[in-house]
Amino acid sequence: MDDLLADFLTETHEGLVALDAALLRLEKQPQDKPTLSEIFRLVHTIKGTCGFLGLGRLEKVAHAAENVLGLYRDGVLAVTPDGVTLILNALDRIKEIVGGLESGGAEPAGDDAELIRRLDAAATGDMAAITAEAPPAPKPAEAAEPVAAEAPAPEPRAAAAPPPPAPPPAEPQGEESASGGRAPPQSIRVSVDVLEDLMMLVSELVLTRNQLMQLARARGDGAYTVPLQRLSHITSDLQDGVMKTRMQPIGNAWAKMPRLVRDLSIELGKKINLEMRGADTELDRQVLELIKDPLTHMVRNSADHGLEMPEDRRRANKSETGRIMLNAFHEGGHILIEIADDGKGLSTDRIRAKALSQGLATEAEIAAMSEREVHRFIFRAGFSTAAAVTAVSGRGVGMDVVKTNVERIGGTIDVSSTEGRGTSFTIKIPLTLAIVSALIVEVAGERFAIPQIGVLELVRVGGGADTRVERIKDAPVLRLRDRLLPLVSLGAVLGLEEPKEVPVGDSGDMGFVVVTQVGAHVFGIIVDRLFDTEEIVVKPVAPILRHIGMFSGNTILGDGSVIMILDPNGIARVTGVAGDGAEQRSMAGQATSGVRSNDKTALLLFRAGDPTPKAVPLGLIARLDDIPVENIEHSGGTPVVQYRGQLMPLLSMTGDYGPPQDERGRQTVLVFSEGERSLGLMVDAILDVVDESLNVQAGQGRPGFLGSAVIAGKVTDVVDTAWWLRQAGGDWFRASPAQTVTRRLLVVEDSAFFRELVVPALAAEGYEVVAVESATHALKLRERGEVFDGIVSDIEMPDIDGYGFAKEVRAGGAWAGLPMIALTGRVEPAAVARGRAAGFTDYVAKFDREALIGSLAECFNVPVAA
Predict the structure, then answer these.
(1) How far is the CA of 732 from the CAs of 265, 635, 729, 854, in angstroms?
(2) How far, in Å, CA of 499 to CA of 428, rounded?
(3) What are phi and psi of 462, to 5 degrees?
(4) Which residues contact 602 (CB under 8 A, 6 or more apart)?
(5) How far is CA 355 from the centre of its chain?
(6) What does the alpha-carbon distance between residue 513 and residue 466 come to, in Å, rounded to a whole number?
(7) pLDDT tens for residues 470-526?
(8) What three-state secondary structure class fits 655?
(9) Calpha distance 274→172 (Å, rounded)
(10) In the sheet where 529-538 sits, what is the strand order?
(11) Distances in Å between the alpha carbon of 163 and those of 49, 159, 188, 265?
């Protein structure tokens, strides 16, 4: 009976998780017959099994709930929110009884008469019984208890081979459908201890396999080659199988979140919409158990003290329905989990005052802190700025416990908040107990491992290789096909060798470059030597090394050497070649992939003709070329060069088609490319690459220039790239100068090339511009409460096209009345008519700058000089 009871408890837990999700679906779609059938079947199974085991109290509650569900299923009673709440009350009582069975081995004592009376009355259609106040009952432990800091989450008594039914991966909108009568896959239950022991044995087997492979390579003995290869394949397959038994989707930890948020919504009198993304992201089972409680605590915090009451949201020009978002994804060998809300955000002033009153920092120290540094005080023990600690949660109360639990598994937690707009927490969990494929590299005589998930390609540089390193002043860059990639010397970053000048061009063999990607940024890591790719057993970083931030773990190689595993995210942060990937994908809805006109911009400085420096946004340049003069030909009096099987026109900024070659007989060319079109701009010399805000003073009608700006301490001419593209002919676009108008514009354009064109062009006219890559990003800005005076949008975009975006904007909200201008390459009458029907104010050809500026001026009713 003990074995039967253990199996019953495990199955009942799985059933109750599925019931919570199914009942929330039913509440959204009362006519969903498959969901009703699924709910009835699950409750019927619980009732039948507990009757067989002699669990009388449990059977009576389940039977009374089954009676009501049967009437719902047969259409005798209509499903109502109050009716769903009554069934959920019955499920809570079942959970309470099951919890007593687990702890004591027998049904706990209790009186269910009032609950059963209400269920029986509901079966007769008595609405008063359905809407009556539920009798008090203890809440489930995880919903009522705060996060425990000292002890890890208890190990389950048994683990199922397949995971339990996953919750809906997105907000519970009723879009999912039940699987019908499909037979479940066959499975057996295996003790967790058995799986843990098996995992340890496989880890040792992998290490032994690596040692044998290295010995065979060192001795050059071919007799063992074939059996070792077979052993390697078997080990890899066994390793994959065991890893799958440990990995579970994070959706399992989110299973009870929709029910939790629904109950909090009713209890707090707030309208809350829960969105869950990346529910199928898998992570280690032990990690999953340890993050359940922190996630629950943070969601409760967001609902209670993050989101405002409906009337407060209305006064703040927000939707009455608040939003909580959970998101999980893999990045750079880590798992990132984000919990965000669009509520009132953290009060920086109150946090400063609280930190001062508790003596956590001096007034001078706090004054020197950034807002983000101030916000991190909430992770201090006992720190809270909540006006009152409620029964649900207190903002800040327990966040130190959350941080402690996350750090116990080698993770980190950070916060990003904008007052009045919302708060986003990012949990970053490094690789812990896992086996991954890694590339072994060497620098300064030391070996390191780079997880292969972050390696895009390997490039040999110098020594006769085709790929070369260029230098833009002091910064080495790798010219790889059509991209310029920043380079990082691993030896110098780790302090293993003195920084040395990287050879450029064909001068010398500089070794290898590991091309890696962090978020949207691609860069190269310079190493001395490459070894084989190996399957490695990952161990967490020792606490004494955790502050370095460039390592994600360590491992033991086949020869017994202990080496560190590099973290590309950490290298990018330390060197500054890329932003923090977690921040770039902030759930708070920031359009981090966008471009703001008042942000610092990477600018390429060069000289052409007169001594005044010239500047162009680096993002517009596809590549820098150094062309032998003998390769330049002429077509119709215009210099051209063969490029990608086509003739690319070359333009000279001096107005003279005779190219100003250097003493080597070579010509420096800036190459602009979009789609099949390319143009080369001949210049005298490359000066530098700088990051500065592009504050352009409008020019005095000088063709080819937007105006002037002070860059790197010098007056610099800012190139009007669109003007030069027009000189090349073809179907690029037209442009002309106009007067300044001060407004804030949102530009929605999926092409990075055109975003880089539009932002400086509009900024030169006095507009503050925010450019994003998709309508989805734009709508997130609306949810965050961003304010604009007008919108310029492309039409042909992935995800949501311009027509759908316009309809969504016009449907309601703070942007419903904004002027919207369609900027597109399609200007035929049918397309224009469709755009106006969708809600666009005007339709402008891409990129007719004169028409765009004129259209904006007309929308804002401001004069524009002819």
Answers:
(1) 54, 19, 7, 20
(2) 31
(3) 75, -175
(4) 617, 618, 619, 689, 690, 691
(5) 31
(6) 13
(7) 766 556 778 776 567 888 888 888 888 776 655 554 444 567 899 987 655 688 899
(8) coil
(9) 7
(10) 529-538, 434-443, 446-451, 562-566, 551-556
(11) 21, 8, 12, 29
The full length of the chain comes to 866
Contact 555, 563 (CB under 8 A): yes
Q: In the predicted model, is pLDDT for residue 222 greater than 80?
A: no
Contacts of 788 (CB under 8 A, 6+ apart): 744, 745, 746, 770, 815, 818
Using a cut of 0.70, tell me whether the model's pTM lies above it. Answer: no
Query: Residue 25 carries which side chain, given as an amino acid letter?
Result: R
pLDDT digits 0-9 by tens, 670-712:
888 776 678 888 888 888 777 777 777 766 567 888 888 888 8
37-56 pLDDT tens trace: 888 888 888 887 776 677 88
Q: Among all chains, which residue has been given the structure tokens 């010219």?
A: 479
3-state secondary structure of 271: strand
- Which residues in 452-528 belong to E strands, given as ranges? 455-462, 468-472, 475-480, 483-489, 509-518, 521-527
What is the rounded CA–CA span in Å between residue 739 and residue 699?
Answer: 10
- According to DSSP, the β-strands at 820-824 and 842-845 are parallel
Q: Are strands 446-451 and 562-566 parallel, antiparallel or unpaired?
A: parallel
321-332 tens-digit pLDDT: 999 999 988 775
80-94, 530-544, 566-580, 806-820: which range is least confident on average?
566-580
Q: Which residues face 536 on adjacent strands?
A: 436
- Percentage helix, strand, coil, to 5, in the chain? 40, 25, 35
Where is 337: in which H helix or E strand?
A: strand 334-341
- The 8-class DSSP code of residue 505 comes to B
Question: How many other CB atoms are there within 10 angstroms of residue 630's CB atom?
Answer: 8
| 529 conformational bin, left if phi > 0, alpha if psi -120 to 50, beta if neither | beta
pLDDT of residue 690: 78
What whole-number distance in Å separates Cα of residue 794 and Cα of residue 675? 16
Half-sphere exposure of residue 365, counting CA atoms within 13 Å on the CB side? 10
To 10 degrees, the CA torsion angle through 673, 674, 676, 682?
A: -20
Q: Which of 552, 573, 572 is nearest to 563 (CA)?
A: 552
Residues 285, 287, 289: CA angle, nearest 5 degrees: 70
**Helical residues (DSSP H) of 124-191, grouped into ranges:** 127-131, 141-144
HEC per residue, 718-757: EECHHHHHHHCCCCCCCCCCCCCCCCEEEEECCCHHHHHH
In this predicted model, what pLDDT tens digit does every residue of 730-782 receive, in sequence order? 555 443 333 344 688 999 988 887 888 888 888 878 888 888 989 988 998 88
Task: Say how far apart CA 229 and CA 222 lie, in whole Å.
Answer: 11
| CA–CA dist 201, 554 (Å, integer) | 19
Q: Characterize 331-365 residue by residue with b for buried, 16 or more Cβ atoms within 10 angstroms of its Cβ, and e for exposed.
A: bbbbbbbbbbbbbbbbbbeebbebbeeeeebeeee
Bond prior to 753 in cis (omega within 30° of 0): no
- Mean pLDDT on 203-224: 79
End-to-end CA distance of the chain: 92
Q: Which residues have C-beta within 8 Å of that of residue 129, sequence separation ≥ 6?
A: 117, 118, 121, 122
CB 294 within 8 A of CB 147: yes
Return the exposure string of 807-833: e unless at least 16 CB atoms fall within 10 Å of the residue's CB, then b. ebbbeeebbeebbbbbbbeeeeeebbe
pLDDT digits (tens, 9 = 90+) for 110-135: 888 888 888 888 888 776 666 665 55
Instruction: Read off the tokens for 601.
Output: 């911009």
Contacts of 237 (CB under 8 A, 6+ apart): none
